[in-house]
Design a protein that fits this description.
Two copies of one chain form a homodimer. By secondary structure, chain A is α/β, with parallel strands linked by helices. Chain A has 13 helices and twelve strands. In chain A, the strands form three sheets. Chain A has a six-stranded parallel beta sheet, sandwiched between helices. In chain A, strands 7-6-8-9 form a four-stranded parallel beta sheet, sandwiched between helices. In chain A, β8, α12 and β9 form a beta-alpha-beta unit. The longest helix of chain A is centred in the first third of the chain and has 17 residues. Chain A is elongated, with a radius of gyration of 28 Å. The interface between A and B is large, with 54 and 55 residues. β2 of chain A pairs antiparallel with β2 of chain B. Chain A binds a DNA duplex (30 and 30 nucleotides) through α2 and α4.
Chain lengths: 374, 374
DNA sequence: CGCAAAAATGTAAACGTTTACACGAATCGC
DNA sequence: GCGATTCGTGTAAACGTTTACATTTTTGCG
C-alpha cells in the first residue's frame, strides 16, 4: 500500500497523517534508533541528545504506532478477558480490579462478554490470540470449564471462578465461606437451617452447597434433602424458595441462601408470608452485593472482594506472561469475610444450654480459618 | 530482531512459533498474496486454489498476526471505551451493549475504567490513540466533559452521557423521563412532590432535576426549594433524604428520587420512620436497577435501556469510523420507559375532582412523548 | 490456430517499530 | 601519544501483513 511513497526520508506532516519515528528523528537530527532508545528509556544516550529527541517528539505530538511496536517486539501489552453472560455488579467489579492492576503495569485489557456457550467462547478466544499476551477466562459454569482448559494452549491463560481443572486459576473460597456462614448460624443457636442452592452447573453454587453439607453432615440424607431448596441465583428463585420454606412443616429457623440475590428474594417472600426476620427466621446471603445493606432488615452475608479477585488474577497472569517457562500451575483462592448485619438476629439469647433436637455438625474444633473474620 | 533469520523462505514450524502467511503459502504451493486474498475473501481466486489454501491454513492452525495486519491496513478493528469510576450495573450493561454490537461487526473493545479525574482520562486517551480506530468516552461529570471535547481530535469520538458539548454523543432522555415520572404522579393526584436530587456535577442528575422543575414550574421558588433534597446517587444519601422528608412539616405525599439507589434508601428511611408506602407516601425512582422490583414495595421507576445506549453509541461511532469525512455531528437520545410497580400506589381513588391546594404544573396538554410508555 | 482480452497469480514495496551489529569518537592506562 | 576500552550513534534487517503492479495462464472469438 504505497501511498506516501517516501515516508522514511521526507519530513511530510503538516497536512495530516500522524508523525512517525522517522519524523522525530529527522527533526531531532538523529537516527530512528536513537529516538527509539530515548523513548523507551533503553541504554545510554547522551543527556543532550535525549532532550532534543524528547522536544522533537513533543513538538510533533508523536505517539508510537502500537501495531508496529507489537509486530516488532512480538508482544501487545494487552490481555484479553473473556466473560460469560454474567450480571452486573460482579462483572464490573472484576473488570475494575483487573483494569487497575493492569494499567499500573502498562497493560491494556480487551474484553469480550456475554458468552453463554462454549462454542462462542472458543471462537472469541481464537480471534483474540495473537492480539493479546495472555487470556483471562471466566467460566463459572462447569460445562464450560473443561473445554477451555484443553484449548488456548501456547498462550498464557488464567481461569476465573472455574470448576476444578488443572491450569492456573483464581477462585473464591466458596467452601470456606459457606462453612463460616454455617458456623455463625450454629453459634447463634440454629440447627434447623435451610439452604437455597444456586444453579448446579455453576461451580460457585456447588462449592457453597458443599460447604453447607459439610456443616450439616451429622444429618440423615432424607432430613437434609428436606432442607435444601433449589434456586437459580436470581431474586425470583429466591422468592419462590422463600415461599416453600415458609410453608415447610417443621419450619427451619434459619436460611442460608447461596447468594444475596436469592436471600433478598427470600426476604421478600417472608415479608409477604408474615414471617418476621430476624425474630422468627434468620437469613444469611453470600456476596455482599451493594443493596444487601439496604434491604429490611439489612442482610448478614459473606463478603467477596471481587476486585481483589481481578487483581490477583492479573498478577498471576502477568507472572506467566513474563516467564512462561519457569512457571508451575497455581490455583489461588480469595478469602471471604463475614459481614454481620440485622437479618440473622445477631447474638441470640438462648445458646448452647438448650438441648437442640437436630443438633448436627457440632463439636468440631473451631480452627479459625481464612474467610472467617468479621 | 533477526532471530529466525530465514522465516520467509523456510518452512520451519514444528518446534514452536506460530505459522505465518508464508508457511501457509509454501504448503499450499502459492504466493502469500494469494493466501491473503483467499483468507480475506478478496478478489477472484480459483475455487481449487482457494480450497488448497484453506486446507493448508487449517492444517497449520494459522491465525493471522493482527499487529502486522493493523500495521498494513492502518486500522486496528478495535474501539476504546473510557469510563469514569462508575458503579456496577450501569458500567457492565453499557459494556455489554457495546460488546454485542461490536462483535457483530468484527470489532474488539479495549476498556479502561475507573477514571475520576480529567487528567487521568486524558492520559488514557493518549495511550489508546493509535491502538484504536475510535473512542467512546463516558463523561457524566460536567467537569470532565468539556476537556474531553477539546482533545482527542483526529480520532473518531463518541461521548456517552455527557453534559452538553458539541461533538457526537448519545445520552439518556433524562429530561423527558423525569417529566414522564412527574406526569404519572400528577395523574395519581399528587401535587406535593419532593425530589431527591443526584450530585449536581453529574449531567444526568441535572437533567432529571430540570425535568422535575419543569413539571413543578407553577410553584413559587421558596416552596420549591423546600421540596428539593440533595442526594448523591447512593443509598446512604437516599436514606438521609428520606429521613428529612419524613420530618418535613407539610409532609410531601410523594417522592421522586433521581435514581433507584436513592429511592431504595428513602424506602428504608420511611420504613424505619413508620411511614407506609404507598399508603401515605408514594415513591418513584429512575433507572430500573435489578433490585428495584424486589424491594418492598416493588419500586415504580423509569427504565433506562442501558445496553441500548451502548449499542447505539457503537453504531454511531462505527459510522464515523467508516466515513469520517461525510459525517456531521449527531447527538442522540435514548428513550426511557415508565415501569409501574407498587411503590406509588397506582390508580389512587381520589383523582382530579379534588381541588388540590398546590396544584402546580397542571393543565398542560398531554402530548405523548417518547419515554412514556408503560 | 492465433491473438486479444480477461482472469488468476506472483513479486515486492510498503506499514512503523525494535535492535543486532558496525562504526566513529571519547576516555583510559601506561 | 598510543593502543585498548568504553560510550554514543547510525545502518539496516527483521516483525507479518496487504496490495499496486507485473506477469502468467486461461478463455473467447474469428
Amino acid at each position: 500500500m504505497p501511498i506516501p511513497r517516501d515516508a522514511r526520508t521526507t519530513r511530510r506532516r503538516s497536512n495530516a497523517a500522524a508523525a512517525t519515528i522517522h519524523d522525530v528523528a529527522a527533526r531531532a537530527g538523529v537516527s530512528v534508533a536513537t529516538v527509539s532508545r530515548v523513548l523507551n528509556g533503553i541504554a545510554v544516550v547522551r543527556e543532550e541528545t535525549s532532550r532534543d529527541v524528547r522536544a522533537a517528539a513533543k513538538f510533533l505530538r508523536y505517539v508510537p504506532n502500537v501495531a508496529a511496536r507489537s509486530l516488532s517486539i512480538r508482544r501487545s501489552q494487552t490481555i484479553g478477558i473473556v466473560l460469560p453472560d454474567v450480571h452486573g455488579e460482579f462483572f464490573s467489579e472484576v473488570i475494575r480490579g483487573i483494569d487497575l492492576a493492569a494499567r499500573r503495569e502498562g497493560y491494556h485489557i480487551l474484553v469480550s462478554g456475554s458468552h453463554s456457550d462454549p462454542g462462542e467462547m472458543l471462537e472469541v478466544v481464537e480471534t483474540m490470540r495473537g492480539r493479546v499476551d495472555g487470556l483471562m477466562i471466566m467460566a463459572p459454569d462447569v460445562t464450560l470449564a473443561p473445554i477451555e482448559e484443553l484449548r488456548a494452549r501456547e498462550l498464557p491463560v488464567v481461569l476465573l471462578n472455574a470448576a476444578a481443572g488443572t491450569g492456573d486459576a483464581i477462585t473464591i473460597d466458596n467452601f470456606g465461606g459457606a462453612r463460616a456462614v454455617m458456623r455463625h448460624l450454629h453459634d447463634l443457636g440454629h440447627t434447623h437451617i435451610a439452604f437455597v442452592c444456586g444453579p448446579l452447573h455453576n461451580a460457585d453454587a456447588r462449592e457453597r452447597l458443599r460447604g453447607y453439607r459439610h456443616a450439616m453432615r451429622g444429618l440423615e440424607p432424607a432430613a437434609l434433602r428436606a432442607l435444601e431448596f433449589q434456586g437459580a441465583f436470581t431474586e425470583e428463585s429466591g422468592f419462590a424458595a422463600g415461599e416453600r420454606i415458609a410453608a415447610a412443616l417443621p419450619r427451619p429457623t434459619a436460611v442460608f441462601a447461596a447468594n444475596d440475590s436469592m436471600a433478598v428474594g427470600a426476604l421478600a417472600a417472608f415479608a409477604t408470608a408474615g414471617i418476621r426476620v430476624p425474630d422468627s427466621m434468620s437469613v444469611v446471603g453470600f456476596d455482599d452485593i451493594p443493596i444487601a445493606r439496604y434491604v429490611a432488615p439489612p442482610l448478614t452475608t459473606m463478603r467477596v472482594d471481587i476486585a481483589e479477585l481481578g487483581r490477583r488474577a492479573f498478577a498471576l497472569l502477568l507472572s506467566i506472561i513474563i516467564n512462561p517457562a519457569a512457571h508451575t500451575a497455581r490455583r489461588e483462592r480469595v478469602a471471604t469475610t463475614l459481614v454481620v448485619r440485622g437479618s440473622c438476629g445477631a447474638p441470640k439469647p438462648q445458646p448452647k444450654q438448650y438441648a437442640q433436637p437436630h443438633r448436627a455438625a457440632r463439636g468440631r474444633k473451631r480452627v479459625p480459618e481464612k474467610g472467617e473474620v468479621s
